[in-house]
Design brief:
This protein is an alpha/beta fold. The protein has 8 helices and 18 strands. Helix 6 (164-175) runs parallel beside helix 7. 24% of the residues lie in helices and 30% in strands. It has one domain (2-291): Purple Acid Phosphatase, chain A, domain 2. The chain starts with a strand and ends with a helix. Strands 8-9-11-12-14-13 form a 6-stranded mixed sheet. Strands 6-5-2-1-15 form a 5-stranded parallel sheet, covered by helices on one side. Strands 16-17-18 form a 3-stranded antiparallel sheet. A hairpin with a 2-residue loop joins strand 16 (251-260) and strand 17 (263-275).
Length: 294
């Protein structure tokens, strides 16, 4: 199963501190608990370390957020995004360490380019699945902050950028270690239901290189799904835990897929609504509206 942006700071963080780690996912736990493997995009750091970076939106969640993700059953989260180093690399590294204590892996960022581009391989029911994660977002309009300044270098920490040639090399290498490759892609335009040309080109390049499934994030809304050259692209999974939004951003879904060595055998959606920043199962009427766009 896969979900969209997980932003556990601001009012969600307040709820975590005031109540318990269970408060975040309790309303969707029955659905998530049936997953053999659960993945999402972590749209914040989980740390008390670091210095705020010069950008408009900076998300730092309390330590309890790691407990919440563990209780929900998350196995891996993508951190190749425009919030991975909101508080510098010390906070990112601390966040990864806290998650690892709960056996939750992070992918798409690290202490250098080799680490940022390294796959995370998870085996389930005899199937080895390699995960890779990449980001490509526009310069922040309010501050001119450019996420490209966070690109990991040979000897410097950062994120993996969605450069098609490097992605192809990573995917081809991952395929020698795993049966199937899944790419997490943080790209596109915020608040837009249409797919941005660069976003589509990057996702299709990942499939052409041998990935079976591309899971998108960043637009904050659900976007279309595309079958392409034997693979499947989910252009945007939207939000999943996020305050400060209304509709259409608060309509979302859990993406479910059955994987085999040949790729995605079948997939479906479980409709979800975000209320006060937290996910809950959709009502029958809400579910019909959400599924009408799938």
């Amino acid at each position: 199963m896969a979900v969209g942006d997980l932003m556990l700071a601001r009012t969600v963080g307040d709820k975590l501190r005031a109540k318990s780690a269970a408060v975040v996912f309790s309303a969707v736990e029955p659905a998530l608990s049936s997953a053999d493997l659960l993945v999402g995009n972590l749209e914040c750091v989980i740390s008390e370390l670091g210095q705020a970076q010069p950008k408009a939106y900076r998300f730092r969640a309390p330590p309890e957020a790691a407990d919440a993700l563990a209780l929900a059953g998350f196995n891996i989260v993508g951190v190749a995004n425009n919030h991975a180093m909101d508080y510098g690399f010390s906070a990112l590294a601390d966040s990864a360490a806290r998650l690892q204590e709960h056996n939750i892996s992070t992918v798409g960022a690290g202490k250098n380019a080799a680490a940022a581009h390294a796959p995370v391989i998870i085996e389930r029911k005899g199937l080895r699945i390699a995960f890779l994660a990449y980001v490509d977002v526009l310069v922040e309009s309010r501050t001119s902050f450019d996420t490209r300044t966070w690109i990991a270098g040979p000897n410097s920490p950062g994120v993996a950028w969605a450069e098609p040639k490097r992605m192809a090399a990573d995917i081809e290498a991952a395929k020698t270690q795993a049966d199937v490759v899944v790419v997490l892609l943080h790209s596109g335009l915020e608040g837009r239901s249409d797919v941005y040309p660069a976003q589509q080109a990057e996702a299709q390049a990942a499939i052409d290189a041998g990935a079976a499934l591309v899971l998108g994030s960043h637009p904050h809304v659900l976007q279309r799904t595309e079958k392409y050259h034997g693979g499947l692209i989910v252009y945007s999974l939207g939000n999943f835990v996020f305050d400060g939004f209304t509709l259409p951003e608060n309509y979302t879904a859990i993406f479910t897929a059955s994987l085999s060595a040949s790729g995605v055998d079948e997939y479906s959606w479980i409709p979800v609504v975000i209320e006060d920043g937290l996910p809950r199962m959709a009502t029958e009427q809400e579910a019909a509206e959400i599924l009408a766009t799938r």
